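BACKBONE STRUCTURE TOKENS:
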Amino acid sequence: MKYRPSHTPGIMNPASHILMFAVLMLLALSSLLLLPLLPFSDAGTADAQSRVRILQSDELEGVVAAEGRIRKLTGNVALSTEDFTIVCDSAWHYLDLEELRAWGNIEITSERDQIWSDRATYDLVSEVALFEGRVVMQSEKALLFSEEVFYSFVTEIALFPERLRLEDDRGVLVADSGFYYNALDSAVFRGNVQVSDSLQYIEADSMFTRRSDEYYELHGRVYLDDQENRTRMTGGFVQADSTGYRRAEGGSRMRRISEDLSDTTFLWADWLEVHQKDTINTFSAYDAVHIWTESYSSLSDTAHYDDAVEQFILEGDPRLWYEEMQLTGPYILIQLEEDSVRYLESHLNSFAVQRDTSIDRLNQITGDTLYVQFEDGTVSYMQVYPRGNVLYFVKDSDGQADGAIEMTADFIKLLFEEGELVDVIARRNVDGIFHQENEGISEKRLSGFVWEPEMRPQRPDMPMEPRLPPVPDERPFELPRRFAIVDGVANRGTQDSQD
């Protein structure tokens, strides 16, 4: 073949982009330690012309331009390299630059991938390609869409500098940019990351994921909606995997709706962990733990919940509020029954305060172990043992304040009806005194008294809602002509699909 002088058409020189991709790829590999560094293929002494084998072309022309020798192929072009076969409308093979450029209706097929695009530039030495226009990549486990993609056929790593969309058998992921590690089915995404599938919805500023393992590391303004378990979670960082484990850090918050949709629990803390197995949930929250429900609220250093037994355990100077009662102690157990409080139990220097709203006075009970039983959502009785101490205010026949009784005993039980104290039972080593009504008696306090209604957590005002619009059902562009979907699978080589 003879070559004649020619001018190169005004197309973008991708050298700088390919260099950027190589640098970014090395940074990503070294920081994430995901893959060993693999050498690019050696240029060696292989003949430049033999690197690209012509399988078909309506027209072939050899020219010489400023870039050196060029083979121009036009019309129904089919070529092959060591990495892939390509069909397209036209292609130029720059023999001296060892570069292949293709245009129009491109379809590339390799051992593990299939790629469609409008334009492509392939470096035969580095084996890195730049795809532009309507780019669709079909890997073994995912289908990806973008308008610009760098791809290394050696490391099987794709760089997406532009907005991308990933689809697999579980759902859809979109982001402003990212890396996709095809061999490991792993990816790093940045900017307005969203994941939507049948069981959950996720938002974050950035994400690392192994989709096949359902493993995620989410960073920055994280929002996770677990629709199957009626749980929403937010935080600065969230880790999640297929075992049902969730870890949220950086001002984490969680909202959980009861199975019958009648009750909502809000929890916020510095960080928390959630374990989900089938329909059973357990979680632990740490550092400045706040809990709010319609019936009770609490503060503690740590909180543990087990769905199997419907129990909360609060530790680390906890405080619990239920209607007009406050309970404090180093350990508080909340026993639920169908999301309603059945009983409370506190150990070691426990202290309960119950406000009698009719006379605005504070009944007090303290001791080693304190137990509070509920019926139909109100306090039924309190009991304390051993060596309990109680101060309760009495009323006359007109319901007016009429002094107080202070008592100690090995066992003390306070009975309530409709939230009002109606009787006190004391047993063994009973000792007590009656305090006449007098000015200042309402301020009488037992040792260890704690009453802090101003610290009671309130329902959060900030809604736990997505900040981004929903993931669109539509793909980002009209599909390339050679790309078709038949029964949900990319059909290789189809040429008469959508324009």
In short: Helices lie at 15-32. Residues 5-19, 23-46, 485-499 have pLDDT under 50 and may be disordered.
